[in-house]
C-alpha cells in the first residue's frame, strides 16, 4: 500500500515584477516553470494576478482595454509542507497581452498573435480568462480553438463572478464547461472576494510541484 503523505496548504508568499518581453530574444529562459494567463482585453487578468498573489499593485490594472502589450513576467515563490518538511518552489507567473485590443492596426494584431503563439508552447499551463457574464463570445471561441492546438495544459477561468447572482454564476460556469472543454473543469473566479482562488491554487500546485 502506497504511503500517504501529509501535505499542508500550498500558497504564494513572494511575488515581484521580473521583466517584460517584446520579442523572442527577451524570453526568460532560466529553467524555471512558467504559468501564463491570457484573455480578451479588460477581462480582469491583472486583477486576478494581484488577488492570486495577495497584492494590490503587482500587476497594473488599467481602465483602458489592451494596456498589456508585452509578455510580463512575475517571479513567484511558493511553499507547502510535506510530512513536516517545507518545500519551496520558484517559478514565473506570466501576464500575456490581451487579444483583440482596441486602437491598434490589424498588422500589429497579427504580429502579436505570432509572437504569443511561439511562446505558449514552452509553458506548463495556460489559463484562458473569460468574462463569466458573457460566455461564448466569438472572440473567446476563436482564442480557445487556437489554444487547444498549442497549449500544453489548458484551464478556463471565468472572471468577475461577483458581478453575477449566485444562480447566474453557476449556470454560466456550466456553459463554460460545455463550450470550452479543457484539461480541467472551468473555475469561477472573483478577484474581489477571492472565490475560486483555492481551486486555481490546487492546479498551480500540481504544475509547479510535480
Describe the structure.
The structure is a single chain. The model is unreliable at 62-67 and 101-109 (pLDDT under 50). Helices cover 30% and strands 28% of the residues. It has five helices and seven strands. It has a seven-stranded mixed sheet with strand order 1-3-4-2-5-6-7, sandwiched between helices. With 210 residues, it is an alpha/beta fold.
What are its keywords?
single chain; 210 residues; alpha/beta; 5 helices; 30% helix; 28% strand
Provide a quick synopsis of the model.
This protein has 210 residues and is α/β, with parallel strands linked by helices.
Q: What's the number of helices? A: 5
Taking the sheet with the most strands, its summary is: 7 strands, mixed
Order of helices and strands: EEHEEHEHEHEH
Strand fraction: 25-35%
- What overall form do the CA principal axes indicate? globular
Mean pLDDT: 86
What is the end-to-end distance?
Answer: 21 Å
* Strand arrangement, major sheet: 1-3-4-2-5-6-7
Please give the structural blueprint.
Layout: E1 7-21, E2 34-39, H1 45-53, E3 71-82, E4 85-95, H2 106-120, E5 125-131, H3 138-150, E6 154-159, H4 166-179, E7 187-188, H5 197-209
Parallel strand pairs: 2-4, 2-5, 5-6, 6-7
Antiparallel strand pairs: 1-3, 3-4
Amino acid at each position: 500500500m502506497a504511503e500517504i503523505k501529509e501535505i499542508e496548504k500550498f500558497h504564494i508568499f513572494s511575488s515581484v515584477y521580473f521583466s517584460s518581453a517584446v520579442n523572442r530574444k527577451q524570453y526568460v529562459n532560466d529553467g524555471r516553470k512558467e504559468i501564463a494567463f491570457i484573455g480578451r482585453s479588460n477581462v480582469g487578468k491583472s486583477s486576478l494576478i494581484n488577488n492570486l498573489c495577495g497584492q494590490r499593485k503587482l500587476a497594473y490594472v488599467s481602465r483602458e482595454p489592451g494596456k498589456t502589450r508585452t509578455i510580463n513576467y512575475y517571479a513567484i515563490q511558493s511553499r507547502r509542507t510535506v510530512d513536516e518538511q517545507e518545500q519551496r518552489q520558484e517559478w514565473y507567473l506570466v501576464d500575456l497581452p490581451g487579444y483583440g485590443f482596441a486602437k491598434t492596426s490589424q498588422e500589429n494584431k497579427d504580429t502579436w498573435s505570432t509572437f504569443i503563439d511561439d511562446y505558449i508552447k514552452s509553458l506548463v499551463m495556460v489559463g484562458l480568462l473569460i468574462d463569466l457574464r458573457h460566455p461564448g463570445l466569438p472572440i473567446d471561441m476563436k482564442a480557445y480553438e487556437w489554444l487547444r492546438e498549442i497549449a500544453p495544459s489548458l484551464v478556463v477561468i471565468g472572471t468577475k463572478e461577483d458581478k453575477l447572482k449566485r444562480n447566474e454564476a453557476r449556470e454560466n460556469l456550466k456553459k463554460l464547461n460545455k463550450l470550452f472543454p479543457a484539461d480541467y473543469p472551468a473555475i469561477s473566479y472573483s478577484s474581489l472576494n477571492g472565490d475560486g482562488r483555492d481551486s486555481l491554487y490546487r492546479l498551480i500546485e500540481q504544475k509547479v510541484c510535480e
